[in-house]
Amino acid sequence: MHLYVPTPPVQHFPIENNTPALLDFNKEMKSATMMMRERGKLIYKVYKAITFSLTPLIHLHLYFRKFRGLEHPLRWTERLGRPSLRRPPGPLLWFHAVSLGEGRAAIPVIRRCLVERPDFNILMTTTTLSAFEVLKHQLPPAVIYQFAPLDLPAAVDAFLSYWKPNVVFLMESELWPNIVMATSESKIMLALLNARMSERSFKRWSAPAVIPLIALMLSKFSLITPLSTTEAIRFQLLQAPPFIVSVSADLKYCVGEIGASTNAMKGIEDLQSQLSFRQVWMASSVHKGEHEVMLRVHKTLVQSYPKLLTVIVPRHPHNGLDFAQASKNLGLSVAVRSDDHKLTSETNIYVANTLGELRQLYRLMPISVIGGSFLSTLAGHNIAEAMVAGSAVLTGPHVGHFAHMVAAIRSYNSLSVLQVFGETELEKALHELLSDPISLEARQRAAKEGFYALSRGVLSHVCIQINWYILRLLR
């Protein structure tokens, strides 16, 4: 078990050693690093020229995305660096996350910053429309919320010129060359929080034609907080300065600190009464291809539990109607939440294809199977939200980005997360939990206790790092 106790970061001091061999080695290392970064500057110039030349085509693509409903109908021009809100006077911290999960991970840090540094304004940006629709209800009222600029020279320059942030906090893996380099050239401090570097990303960035660029970009950061020691090593192998890399825990452990909105709670009360006296399990964040697995599992389980209800939450809500149709093709009775269908005693499958309700759904579910983990092309999804809700948590074999979280929680208590390796094992595990209330309760309790044990002190630990490496230098 790894508990994070707030302590000041360890300072690293150089060890004096003037032996000729060591001096020569240090000189060679410095020379190699400088050469790597000089090559990175050349590669960046090429990247910048390419993105500049493609700007008209990307603008056209953005317009068509707006036409298809994939961008905000009124605020889509924010993606071009054009603001829709006034910049207040005073210093400003910019937090950027690509999507919903990363954005939620930033919220506890944002709230702590508002408390500890009320003299700072906070700007939050995300990329996806789905994240915008959910996070606008969860962010503190004082936070300015915009869509992030595309990584185009003109869009980034316009954005930075208007907002003039003092610090940029990028979440997880948002390493865009124009944003990083333009920020650095504007003398703005950079931090990468919840820094993620998967094996696949590491191999991609390690390519000879790319590693000089990533080495240059990482040299511009003042703080990088990787999720694990393994990822910290990967960042350093990509030439991140060792003294700015400080291993942290996953901020997604802090989801328990984000309260549910009143509207979200009202929207779930009706469903809670409809679920009374039904045996139910939920498959959440389900991707295309995975829904077929869940439907086959349901067809097997319903032979033993005729009144069983399976709730399927698509990872992308627009896939919900396809999932519903696939269920109907198997002769199942389906209700769709976005169509305000009510559950009846005959309903077999409930497709919850709405935004922003997953955390509340977990509170109603005795058993939650986390999707994104049953196909080799996927990389898992956050298990923390289900655990903090006290739901028994199951996941497939392909947990990718969340492997560190699954391993840490299972090492604390093996009952906290049940990892199954295939459809047959999933059927067996669900059958055992549905038939054994004592075993189910033990797993629910272990999930919640495991979450709180490993989440304790995470936020304080990260905020201490931010204060030490970033905010204290702004005073």
From TrEMBL:
<feature type="domain" description="3-deoxy-D-manno-octulosonic-acid transferase N-terminal">
    <location>
        <begin position="75"/>
        <end position="253"/>
    </location>
</feature>
<feature type="site" description="Transition state stabilizer">
    <location>
        <position position="252"/>
    </location>
</feature>
<dbReference type="InterPro" id="IPR039901">
    <property type="entry name" value="Kdotransferase"/>
</dbReference>
<dbReference type="GO" id="GO:0005886">
    <property type="term" value="C:plasma membrane"/>
</dbReference>
<dbReference type="GO" id="GO:0016020">
    <property type="term" value="C:membrane"/>
</dbReference>
<dbReference type="InterPro" id="IPR007507">
    <property type="entry name" value="Glycos_transf_N"/>
</dbReference>
<dbReference type="GO" id="GO:0016740">
    <property type="term" value="F:transferase activity"/>
</dbReference>
<dbReference type="InterPro" id="IPR038107">
    <property type="entry name" value="Glycos_transf_N_sf"/>
</dbReference>
<dbReference type="GO" id="GO:0009245">
    <property type="term" value="P:lipid A biosynthetic process"/>
</dbReference>
<keyword id="KW-0808">Transferase</keyword>
<dbReference type="Pfam" id="PF04413">
    <property type="entry name" value="Glycos_transf_N"/>
</dbReference>
<protein>
    <submittedName>
        <fullName>Probable 3-deoxy-D-manno-octulosonic acid transferase, mitochondrial isoform X1</fullName>
    </submittedName>
</protein>
<dbReference type="GO" id="GO:0043842">
    <property type="term" value="F:Kdo transferase activity"/>
</dbReference>
<feature type="active site" description="Proton acceptor">
    <location>
        <position position="102"/>
    </location>
</feature>
<feature type="site" description="Transition state stabilizer">
    <location>
        <position position="172"/>
    </location>
</feature>
